[in-house]
Write a structure and sequence with these properties.
Length: 1010
Amino acid sequence: MQVCGITKCSDPRNSCFKNEQCLVDASTYQPVRRLINSNSRIAMIKETVLSRSLRLMFSGGVAVGFGLLAQPVLAQQATTDTTIQRVEITGSSIKRIAKEGALPVQVLNQDEIKKSGATSASDLIQMLPSMQGFVPSSSSVNGGGGGATTAALHSLPSKYTLVLLDGQRMAPTAVGSGQGGGYAVNIESIPLEAVERVEILTDGASALYGSDAIAGVVNFILKKNNTKGEAFATYNQPKKSGGRSSSMGITKGWGDLDTDKFNVLFSYSHDEQQRLTALQRDFSAKGAFFKFSSGGKDYFFDQRTGNTEPANLTFNVRPIGSTVDTHGVAINPYLAANGNCGSALAGAAGSQCRFNYAATVENIPGNRRDSGLLKGTLQLNEDTKLWGELVLSSFAMTAQFAPSAQPMGVNSTTRFPGLYAKYVQPYLDANGLENPTQKATLGYRSVLVGGRTDEFVTDARHFAAGIDGAAAGWNYTASLILSSSKIKDNAAGGYTDFTQLSNLVATGAYDPVMGTGAGLLKNALLNGVNFSTTDSKLNTIHAGAQHDLMELGGGTSIISLGGDYSKTHYQTAYSPLILSQSGFSTQPASDDYPVGGNYGQVPFDASRNNWGAYTEILLPVTKTLETTISGRYDSYGKTHSNYIFATVPDANGIQQQLASGDLGNTSKAGTYKISARWTPVDTVLVRAAYGTGFKAPNINDIAGANTFGGSTSGSYACPFPGSTGCLVGNAQYDLLSGPNGASGSAGLQPEKSKQWTFGGRIEPAKGLSLGLDLWNVQIRNQVLSAGTPEQVGFANPQQYKYLFTNPYPDPAGYTTIAYLLAPINGGVANYRGVDWDFTYRAKSSIGDLRAAWNGTYMIKQNYTTEAGGTVNSDLGTFGPDNAVVFRVQTNLSLSLTNGKMTNTVTAHYKSGYHDQAYPVGTSIYAANPDGTKGSSVAFDGLWTPSYTTFDWQGKYDFGKFSLTGGVKNIFDRNPPLTLQNAGGGNQLGYDGRYADPIGRSFYLTGNVKF
């Protein structure tokens, strides 16, 4: 191998250009040139054996994650005895010498990871400017997060971003319909301490990886061939109460592949995050009821609910003996008797009480994680190596939200007849009224036993083993991946047993209307009961090979061939309490259920097999132009479900289980990608790519049953006034959720995409590097797992009448209206934007200066909720799918290194947007001149201002020991005010998806090497 400057390489076929250096693989004489300037130092990534992990193509060689500039990824000191070998690059199946390429990529190495101050993969990934639309931990507070966090590129939902661990797929977890639905990897299961670097391809990669990679790829590369030891400990303390965190870990390796022919690596880490409640921060402590100003006028935001304790009663009435239509009334006997609602969290609204649920939730749920890596590599001979790795992780998130809200049916004979006789009948008699149905609804909430708390425990296991080698002129690789994840949802507080509650009411020991005897409910708590257990398994076999083809003007062309076969199995088993009253044959004989729980479910057990084959050809056309052509064919079978039910109830009103079988459609598609890189002069690189993508509908969009899905996020006036299912005033109605298991044209169709990128990098001056990439993604037949959003349906009930069930018998025994959220192919979605990373470094009299500015500017984001339907957008506004797409997200950092001391200041910026609007009769009320709440008004929405925070970090390197201290959110800036009440968790006053509620915090990290 030779490294030459402005001279010829030892191979007479190749020579270096001006200001270039030529790297030649001694065995293949395959040259690679990279863009450098006159004072750059070229270097190579040392690879003593063929890497088995897929690597991302380095975008300009700049680590851009947090605006913290690293040296170009290839710019390390080279030595003449370094062996340069080809490595495989994420976004390409061809092994080559790592270099700057045709695909835009962000790279976070160990230094950037540590400088970020992140203690988990979620913290690290979700602070990147290119990330929008992910699931944060705050969404697990009754927002459908289910204890998981995800990655999402360029505002596309998480299901379009493929997350890999060492280039391998991981077992997925179901994502709530409010977060885009489908499946994604729970990145909380990835042990950050074991990660060597993170590489992020911000361009579609379906032509290599198949389904799921439409937005791009996030590849966590694990440490390897490490013989040293390293340990660390971190403590983070906010200025205000709540939210502190800590982590510690150790990594140690034994054996060097070069000399010992083996390596064993072990890594372990432990992390803890203390919860942060809404009451611990002023901006969220006001909950769902507060005064605000906009446009010079004062208003009240009132999202309090009618489920409270002491409870409300609602029922329909008419004058005695009359035949006119009934009308609804609402009463609160406790309010009538005492003049108040019995709690500081509840207030009067006419003749009933409304509860401020949002003041009782958590802004950040507490969590703890233990994770480890065991990795072994054996070099059999010069060309062949065996490897295996096992990643284990146990992650527990405890999320608390409001006390159990449970409307319950009341009547004069069978359901709480004592309450009807004690409170409803006297009201009727006193006012000369009658209730023809003799039914009422109890607007109940078990306030005095505390908030509902779920402990989500995720145990993940990822095992992979394989062989890499060379034979007969081919380089080959083969691997087996067995990845699994088990998620348990355990009751940890606030949920009570309905049967026990009912018995207490029947005996008179507990009166939910007056709130007396509520202390006795503590014995009815279901703490420790396992509500559900979900098992996700993904088993994959992969094989690939590559071979040199012919000599072209720029070097040797290479072909790569490969294929994979996968089986996905997803299963959820429920407690009998959760299966209760579903209306399906899987419901238990008992009608007992958890008060405030998501009961009425059916078991889920579905699987699907798929296979794919791909090829890729690298064509170095000239010494300045390189092109790559790749193609892939995927075949997804139908979804096999073990729980299929009749669509029509039997004579007893039960939908019977049918034989297991296949549902939905098969999905087959070919995809391709063409990319090129051109270096017309030594300081300019131009790159471009065009490709197609494909995504099969997720199995949870196909299998399952239409089941009770809780209540709407918002409170609405009755969509069909005067109908049987109407509730009094603005109320929360029922939601149904279910799949689309039909086949043919009535079933879900695969999503197709087209994407392109155009950009490059220039180095116009010493130390200055400017990278810019324009990208575009268009998705056709986009699957909307949540169907038509509830806000759209309730605003246009006649248009979407087919999605309403009116009347609907709620499992709790009262009559209401239900709205169905079912997946549909929603038409077309478009995304376009610009990613940039500008970096500068220079030496000065006070030390080494570094500056970096990187970000994403969104040009277009729109979608339709049905084929040919209205074009909607979330860009710079709160959209109909309850999400916001920020026009600009950017990080800017300045760093100074003087000797062993490094100081870095980083700014994080999000642009402003137009917040959620409200029609009249919903949640916005004018303020009267005397400061009291007036009548309901229409409100166009706040302008939520831009949000900027600053961080500082200082690090002193003592040698084998380093000490790092930092301050996050130096100026202690609160999140901006928003009035959104849907799309994330139950937090109000700010949007937990887009802002960190912790405020200023201080952290200290010690790191020792041995």
